[in-house]
Design goal:
Helix 1 runs parallel beside helix 4. A four-stranded mixed beta sheet has the order 1-4-5-8, covered by helices on one side. A four-stranded antiparallel beta sheet has the order 2-3-7-6, covered by helices on one side. The longest helix has 37 residues. The protein has three domains: 112 residues, Butyryl-Coa Dehydrogenase, subunit A, domain 1 (Orthogonal Bundle); 105 residues, Beta Barrel (Butyryl-CoA Dehydrogenase, subunit A, domain 2); 143 residues, Up-down Bundle (Butyryl-CoA Dehydrogenase, subunit A, domain 3), CATH 1.20.140.10. A hairpin with a 2-residue loop joins strand 9 and strand 10. The protein is built from eleven helices and ten strands. By secondary structure, the protein is α+β, with helices and mostly antiparallel strands.
């Protein structure tokens, strides 16, 4: 289901083939080493930039190809279908989340400084929202930015930050006013070579082992007021406007990864025998796989519908939340059932289905938990 869909044009097939070859040539030979190290090589980013896979929706005047988000979607689908969730997630945060904030809210100077570097893989970007005591409730953040003349002074701590170990730039959500609600929050660009910025440990996770995920500390970090992204105090409205794209990104990830789990399972049950018969010949197997195939078909149809809406500027919070809820919950069901068909081998990490199972779990958490998605969807009833 990755190709030959009406949402894409023939020209998109070229990028799809490029992304597929990149996964085979650049990720596959290094993947196990990266999983063990808990981080990718910095050169991975440069290779991605040289291949044209980073920030694909960036206009030509900032060094990008000038396409729409469908280019991003192709990269997402191919890298996740290849089974390399960790390195693929690194690219997604950088290309599908961070670059969108700069494109939509950045000043001309900010765009010209950072976007060409991000497109080339010379600068890695992260976004820092979550704090030790605050997850989905962004209004509870405590990291502060105090105005001191022509500078902001930032103090606080962030956690679970993707690309935290390798990033050169962080979009930091801060409290910049006295209000305890969203009106007192801002987004500030922080270069990681500034005094007072410190990276914590690379966190150990259940899945996405090769994706670096870090604690970040800001101890009196000074940045110029020109590092404000958008208008001071408007962080919540900016975050809300970009979350539909982020949630569709996660839905696309889950669809591609679930499709991969399904496809390798179909191949496995056809050659695996029990009681002298291929598992695929058993009615229980056939019926369960039929259910999974139906789930995938429905998921792809709705995701493509949402992708068209996003490209046309019409994707709503409610549809994006529905896409993320459906795709990530379905993803969990698919990998669980697929692993079951592998029996004891499915519990062994040397089998790809084991890794796909572990990598799937976070999809229902980050970008807004399934419970938050249900709350958002219910508001449109």
């Amino acid at each position: 289901m990755l190709g030959h869909r009406s949402v894409y044009d023939e020209e998109h097939a070229i990028l799809r083939d490029t992304a597929r070859r990149f996964a085979s040539r650049e990720i596959a030979p290094n993947f196990e080493r990266w999983e063990q190290a808990g981080i990718v090589d910095r050169d991975y980013w440069k290779r991605g930039g040289e291949t044209g896979l980073l920030c694909a929706q960036t206009p030509e005047r900032y060094g990008g190809p000038g396409g729409d988000f469908r280019l991003n979607a192709i990269v997402i689908e191919e890298l996740w279908y290849a089974g390399f969730s960790g390195p693929a997630a690194d690219f997604s945060v950088h290309s599908d989340v961070c670059s969108g904030y700069l494109l939509k809210f950045g000043t001309e100077d900010q765009k010209r400084r950072w976007l060409p570097l991000m497109v080339a893989g010379d600068a890695v970007c992260a976004i820092a929202m979550t704090e030790p005591g605050t997850g989905s409730d962004l209004k509870g953040i405590r990291t502060r930015a105090e105005r001191d003349g022509d500078e902001y002074v930032i103090n606080g701590q962030k956690t679970f930050i993707s690309n935290g170990q390798l990033c050169d730039l962080v979009i930091v959500v801060v409290r910049s006013g006295g209000s305890d609600n969203g009106s007192g929050m801002s987004l500030i660009l922080v270069e990681t070579n500034r005094p007072g910025f410190r990276r914590g440990r690379n966190l150990e996770k259940l899945g996405h082992l090769s994706a670096d995920t870090s604690e970040l500390f800001f101890d009196g970090v000074r940045v110029p007021v020109t590092n404000i992204l958008g208008a001071e105090g408007h962080a919540m409205s900016m975050l809300m406007s970009e979350l539909p794209q982020e949630r569709l990104t996660i839905a696309l990830q889950s669809m591609a990864s679930a499709q991969k789990a399904f496809d390798i399972t179909v191949a496995y049950v056809q050659q695996r025998k029990a009681f002298g018969t291929a598992i695929a010949a058993m009615q229980n197997t056939r019926f369960k796989l039929a259910d999974l195939k139906a789930d995938l078909a429905v998921g792809w149809a709705f995701i493509d519908q949402c992708l068209r809406q996003l490209v046309n500027g019409a994707l709503t919070t409610y549809d994006a939340s529905t896409a993320k809820l459906w795709a990530t919950e379905m993803h969990g069901r698919v990998v669980d059932q697929c692993l079951q068909f592998f029996g004891g081998y499915g519990f062994m990490r040397e089998y790809e289905i084991c890794r796909l199972y572990a990598d799937a779990r976070v999809q229902r958490i980050y970008g807004g938990t399934s419970e938050i998605m249900r709350e958002l969807i219910s508001r449109d009833l």
